[in-house]
Design brief:
By secondary structure, the protein is an alpha/beta fold. The protein contains 14 helices and twelve strands. It folds into two domains: about 1-100 and about 300-320, NAD(P)-binding Rossmann-like Domain (Rossmann fold), CATH 3.40.50.720; about 100-290, NAD(P)-binding Rossmann-like Domain (Rossmann fold, 3-Layer(aba) Sandwich), CATH 3.40.50. Helix content is about 40%, strand content about 15%. The strands form two sheets. A seven-stranded parallel beta sheet has the order 8-7-6-9-10-11-12, sandwiched between helices. A five-stranded parallel beta sheet has the order 2-1-3-4-5, sandwiched between helices.
């Protein structure tokens, strides 16, 4: 049996779990960006495909692998996999649901604090010898504590729930919007309440995005969505860049309608130097904090993910039900 890995060889080897199945399956690793033709040549007879979460798995690749019986995302995202082609072939697609929830929750809180405390501006000020002037200005302008903010969550899945659990310690007021509300018991446990989207946007100091990329969510954070947020609001995105209309967000920051944004993800990736959010004018550029899509790539996440992947491969071999099937 053979596994085609589209991703990083060193990562696959580092996080290889101590499971018997890893000795039964040959691994063929190709780098992200390898052409379909080169992948055919390397492993057209593969039984399984493991793909880096942003690496495409095309219909052409799926259709030219006759033995293929499982496609697995290395992460939680699976929007780069051609689900229609997989369904047509009857090939299940799985992800690593929940393995990165705690790690991304930490990143979301980090970005909230970074924009509220102007961490980047404060760092620059100290390095440039402007500590006292900056401190006095910040005392006059005021610094909002995280615990004084209402946090609105778009989505209430694993990552949003983990973020809520961490923010509970700050005493934050929390609301969420999703198509199907949580149960009363779940809301009590998380300390968050359901609100209609319009209400949540208009009354939240910080809006944090926690939805997957689907036809429905792609670009949903558009001009109308951002205008519906309260004046001086903050947008946090640790989900996917495709959810946000990048030009609309740039305009909202330049106009001053949004006070700030903290972004772990942009679209497209890799991010080019001419991205609309990278060339904001002075006054707006200082109110945005970026991180390089690292929220979910902790060592703990990868150890959990790769164990989950190989356990699913073992299930596929013996015909047991798979876990975290997304299609």
């Amino acid at each position: 049996m053979k596994l085609l890995v589209i991703g990083d060889r060193a990562r696959v080897e580092k996080y290889l779990p101590a499971l018997e199945v890893t000795e039964q399956v040959e691994r063929v690793v190709v780098a992200r960006g390898t052409s379909d033709e080169d992948m055919f040549e390397a492993a057209s007879d593969a039984d399984f495909v493991l793909a880096d979460a942003i690496s495409p798995v095309s219909a052409a690749l799926i259709d030219h692998m006759p033995k293929l019986r499982l496609i697995h995302s290395e992460g939680v995202a699976y929007n780069a996999i051609d689900l229609a082609a997989a369904r047509r072939r009857g090939i299940p697609v799985c992800n690593c649901k929940g393995v990165n929830a705690g790690a991304v929750a930490e990143q979301a809180v980090l970005l909230m604090l970074a924009v509220l405390r102007d961490v980047l501006g404060g760092d620059r000020a100290v390095r440039q010898g402007r500590q006292i002037q900056t401190k006095e200005r910040m005392m006059t302008e005021g610094i909002r504590e995280l615990g004084d903010c209402k946090i609105g969550f778009l989505g209430a899945g694993d990552i949003a729930s983990a973020t809520m659990a961490r923010l509970a310690a700050w005493g934050c007021e929390m609301a969420y919007y999703k198509r199907t509300p949580l149960t009363d018991e779940q809301e009590r446990r998380l300390g968050a309440r359901f609100e209609p989207l319009e209400t949540m946007l208009a009354t939240s100091d910080i809006v944090s995005l926690h939805v997957p990329v689907t036809d429905e969510t792609q670009g949903m954070v558009d001009e109308g969505f951002l205008k519906a947020m309260c004046a001086g609001g903050i947008l946090i995105n640790t989900a996917r860049g495709e959810i946000v209309d990048q030009e609309a967000l740039a305009a909202a920051l330049v106009s001053g309608h949004l006070a700030a944004a903290g972004l772990d993800t942009l679209y497209p990736e890799p991010v080019a130097a001419d991205h609309p959010l990278l060339g904001l004018p002075d006054g707006a550029s200082e109110r945005i904090v970026f991180s390089p899509h690292v929220g979910g790539i902790t060592e703990g996440t990868f150890y959990r993910a790769h164990r989950s992947i190989w356990e699913n491969i073992a299930r596929a071999i013996v015909g047991e039900p798979l876990r975290n099937v997304v299609s």
